[in-house]
Amino acid sequence: MKDNLITDIEQNMALILDNCQMEQLHKVLKHSLFNYTVIEDSQNVMQVDSEIDLTKLFISAKRVEGCSERSIKYYKSTIENMLKIVGKTVKHLTTDDLRNYLADYHKKSKCSKVTIDNIRRILSSFFSWLEDEDYILKSPVRRIHKVKTGKTVKETYSDENLEIMRDSCNELRDLAIIDLLASTGIRVGELVKLNKEDINYNERECIVFGKGDKEREVYFDARTKIHLQNYINSRTDENPALFVTLLKPHNRLQISGVEIRLRELGEKLNIIKVHPHKFRRTLATRAIDKGMPIEQVQQLLGHQKIDTTLQYAIVNQKNVKNSHRKYIG
Prior knowledge:
The protein has 329 residues and is mainly alpha-helical. 57% of the residues lie in helices and 4% in strands. It folds into two domains: 48-132, DNA polymerase, domain 1; 159-322, hpI Integrase, Chain A.
């Protein structure tokens, strides 16, 4: 209770005092209250800027910045879960509180270090925003450094796997989905937003809306064009969506529908980890492997930073060996 009182006083004085004065105030409060016991008067508690209100304000700010609803939902659930488990108000949270929370979460959920670092990044964004908006004096996440994660080589689809999946599709829709994902490298979220009118068959291209509703052109091959046309011509519904459910009333296909369908296909064919994002990584890897400039691959995938593109692309080890023989061996 005493520490909470000191924190409240410091937060209220943050905009008035400079750093040196704040440091001196902290020492004075610690010394002056050392021999005192602080008891909260429950009848005269005035709660200002509760954690729920601050979370709502932060989420609103993220929505204004253009974050997708999927990302906003992840932000909100991550922050609210932390506040619920720790059991403190935002202004009273310390670095040790958050370190202990991350450590306990990792131990209990047995999740990967990547997941823990994602939670750390979200909490860092939240508290940095609170600091910038002068709701708190200093972000408690500042001294929690990036979680070191092991680097794993992520798999791509082989030519054989792609052909096996195509040959095993019993539905024209599923074949068109696989071809479109494989030839464009679009995100599954971008795929399900497409409408029939978005496809330019003559130029073999379409406009997709990526993260933050950013538009970009993507391109597909002749095989994809034919399979898309066959699928569209086979439909009898009036839904404007490019891909719809197989059963009536033929609603727009959702992300989960694509993921479940591909996972079932992978299990049936004994192909490991079949999911939409793997098509995207496969395209990036092959494009760079065949000599496509990294900047153009970045544009194709709709990445804001080129570092993200480099993480997607896997350099073919055989090409590294051939280049070593050519330039060094």
